[in-house]
Amino acid sequence: MLEINKWGEITLNHTFLFKICRIAALFLSFLLATSSPLFSGEIGSLGLKIGLNITDYYGSDITDNDQSTRTGLLAGGFLTYKVNSLFSIQPEIFLSMKGGSRLASYEVESYRLYYLEIPILAKLTVPTAGPATPNFFVGPAIALKLGSQRKEVDPSSINNEIKNVDYGFVIGMGIDYEIGYRQFLFELRYHLGTRSIYENIDLKNRTVSLIIGYTL
Fold first, then answer.
1. Rounded-to-integer distance, Cα 146 and Cα 72, Å
2. How far apart are alpha carbons 209 and 141 in whole angstroms?
């Protein structure tokens, strides 16, 4: 798991990272193995994505004037099941960094949250005559907490204060661009968490993500 060392720096337990990578590989393998019985369509593409998260919070216990956004990275993969030429189902898996800063008791608290995210998206593709193909997508997402950090005067871990599971929904749009036999992806998505990340405070994640990727 993500840990805080004695200098207040974030370190990563490599055994835990190996377990996460193994889970991700098993997840994608399961999707490949069950694709035939689940859908009458075919596997359209398998690919990788990387992007930038811009995250803040919303809820009854915070206002926009009491907080600021934080940026973080996300990276992962996806598998597309083509139902027909227009519609597809796209499960994804990401390692995602989120967080934000809020004013609490006249002190600014900055948070870093680390998740393993699994969105399941319904994707509508708009056919075109050229190499650029627009698409729109929406679907639910679940996020498993890997670690968390609060940085005030001294960095500290807040793993016991943050819930282990977050969930919400994703909506967005993108463009698939073909270059030769490769397809490159450009996406803008909005991820709205619908569960408070704290037990006793109404504080939920909301994230805008800018993503690029390509099919394998």
1. 15
2. 14
The chain-wide mean pLDDT, for the chain, equals 80
Local structure of residue 162 (DSSP, 8 states):
B
159-172 residue pLDDT tens: 677 889 999 999 99
22-44: average pLDDT: 55
Closest by CA to 77, choosing from 136, 34, 32, 125, is 32
Q: Specify the residue for token string 């680390």.
A: 114
Pair of tokens at residue 111: 């948070």
**Residue type at 110 in one-letter notation:** S
8 Å CB contact between 200 and 194: no
Domains of the chain: 2-215 (2.40.160.20)
Runs of H (alpha helix) within the chain: 14-33, 35-38
